[in-house]
UniProtKB/TrEMBL annotation:
GO terms for molecular function: diguanylate cyclase activity. The chain crosses the membrane at residues 12-33, 117-142. It catalyses: 2 GTP = 3',3'-c-di-GMP + 2 diphosphate. It comes from Duganella fentianensis. Residues 211-346 form the GGDEF domain. This is diguanylate cyclase. It is an enzyme of class 2 (transferase). NCBIfam families: GGDEF.
Amino acid sequence: MPHQRRPQVRPCATWLCVTVLLGVCSLAIPAGAGELLPKRLPVREYLHELRQQLTEKSTPQRRQWRNGDSLRLPIPAAPDNAAGLVPRQPMQPRAHLAQRPATATWPDASSSIFERYWWQILLGGSLIILQGLLISALILALRSRRLTLDALHDERNQLEARVLQRTQELMQANAKLEQLATTDPLTGIGNRRRMTEQINRELDRGRRFGHPLSLLMADIDHFKNVNDQYGHEAGDRVIVAVAKALADGVRNIDMASRFGGEEFVLLMPETSIEVATSAAERLRQEIAALEVKGDKGESIHFTISIGVAMAPPDNTTDTPSTLVSRADKALYQAKDAGRNRVVSSG
């Protein structure tokens, strides 16, 4: 599978900082725009200043201002002293807004708000548009990042699924290899390697729990004559029949294996030598009653000889080889005694 380059995820922190900064600017500029406007004099302050100026003017100037068209201010007449009246205080001049000078301006009577704040409005609108564009770019970047992360997650899940599948295939292959390495291909029962490992485990378990361990070694009598008279295929059928009888005639905790050629080993945990000898005699009789057909349909009868040995639980020197050796000696004693019999090592 070619290597696929993973897409890179671009960070969006810069876009987010720029967007927040522009948002703050768009809110701060219109708020402080009023401070940048030219200050205009309110109407009340303008009138007060105008009164002060008129008070300081001389009478000819006041008359001149009174007869003017630009501003008409009512000036009170002089007091009549001949009438004996108390002279009145001069009235403060009053200015009418309708008669203001042409140079005077009304501070609140300007044009529309857009004409007064047009550059602030344009700047704020531009910042809002730019902020919207940056927010859109941020949303697109986040969406692209999410799609990239989803692609990475899918790729990781697919990789994990492939690794799990390969692991299962490897475990199955190892189990198959282990089975092939510990199973006799002809009979389907365990081979010598598997039996040796099992004897080691059962010896340790017997010493730990105080149980005896018995071992039976069986050999087909005159097997060479069977091969010479009926052929090797018939001899293989005899071996398979003996292996099936041994495997089917024992308990679940017992184990039968083909030790090599026409020799078989039967391991019986938690079994004394007396019980093992009785079981060996029963198996010998069952196998003697078997019948196998030759290549031409002829009947083949055969017998086995069995040697029995036991490892007591208090014996710490026994090993698989010593236990098998004692059973093998008992087997040769059975053969020397005439075959088709069971002999125990005592």
